[in-house]
Design a protein that fits this description.
The complex is a heterodimer. By secondary structure, chain A is mainly β. Chain A has no helices and eleven strands. In chain A, strands 2, 4, 5, 9, 10 and 11 form a six-stranded mixed β-sheet that branches. In chain A, a hairpin with a 2-residue loop joins strand 6 and strand 7. Chain A is globular. Chain A starts with a strand and ends with a strand. By secondary structure, chain B is mostly beta strands. Chain B has one domain: Sandwich (Immunoglobulin-like). Helices cover 0% and strands 51% of the residues of chain B. In chain B, the strands form two sheets. In chain B, strands 2, 4, 5, 6, 9, 10 and 11 form a seven-stranded mixed β-sheet that branches. Chain B has a four-stranded antiparallel β-sheet with strand order 1-3-8-7, with no helix packed on it. Classes of the chains: A mainly beta, B mainly beta. Chains A and B meet through strand 4, strand 5, strand 9 and strand 10 of A and strand 5, strand 9 and strand 10 of B.
């Protein structure tokens, strides 16, 4: 049972434009959400997170939006750069489980065209 | 930050054999986590390895299939036993980036192909 879903497995965007990645979850008990970025032949690296008490968190070019009622979050990258080309994983956790037990989505491949 | 090294980075294995993956961290950590990413699938937590105690396995994973060692605070091994083609995956070691946030550092992964 896939608790975290990332549709549209790949996205191509022109350099300088906005990349928007979407993520839906089914478990209403999730209260912490994270995005990871993965380059080929490397492990995922933490990018940005958001707690369920917030609806937006911004870090430089990266902003994550959370809509709890819709069980939906999105990652915005603006402006997109060629170095952003990677696979992006959405993840979620429940504080009661210990936040190191994450449920991951399958990932979105982003290609930024120079 | 933590630097995590995994060996081997990739291997091709025969059905029925076992392979041990090593994970070395450059600092002492309480918990180390082993994840699996099957082709086209999400990352799935296999188990949590604690120093001085038995590993805690997630639903669907058992010690006989995935024995884990944690001899000290900087090292862990995961063995994939009696492999079948379904075990072809990337196996990832990880440690906490900050306590109880789910923010993890990952190793580069070990890509296993079982023929």
């Amino acid at each position: 049972d896939q608790q975290v879903k990332q549709n549209s497995p790949s996205l191509s965007v022109q350099e300088g434009r906005i990349s928007i990645l979407n993520c839906d979850y089914t478990n209403s008990m999730f209260d912490y959400f994270l995005w990871y970025k993965k380059y080929p032949a490397e492990g995922p690296t933490f990018l940005i997170s958001i707690s369920s008490i917030k609806d937006k968190n911004e870090d430089g070019r990266f902003t994550v939006f959370l809509n709890k009622s819709a069980k939906h979050l999105s990652l915005h990258i603006v402006p997109s750069q060629p170095g952003d080309s990677a696979v992006y994983f959405c993840a979620a956790s429940k504080e009661r489980d210990g936040n190191n037990r994450l449920a991951f989505g399958k990932g979105n491949q982003v290609v930024v065209i120079p | 930050s933590a630097v995590i090294s995994q060996k081997p980075s990739r291997d091709i294995c025969q059905r029925g054999t076992s392979l041990t993956i090593q994970c070395q961290v450059d600092s002492q950590v309480t918990m180390m986590f082993w994840y699996r990413q099957q082709p086209g699938q999400s990352l799935t937590l296999i188990a949590t390895a604690n120093q001085g105690s038995e590993a805690t396995y997630e639903s669907g994973f058992v010690i006989d299939k995935f024995p884990i060692s944690r001899p000290n605070l900087t090292f862990s091994t995961l063995t994939v036993s009696n492999m079948s083609p379904e075990d072809s995956s990337i196996y990832l070691c990880s440690v906490e980036r900050s306590i109880n946030t789910g923010e993890l550092f990952f190793g580069e992964g070990s890509r296993l192909t079982v023929l």
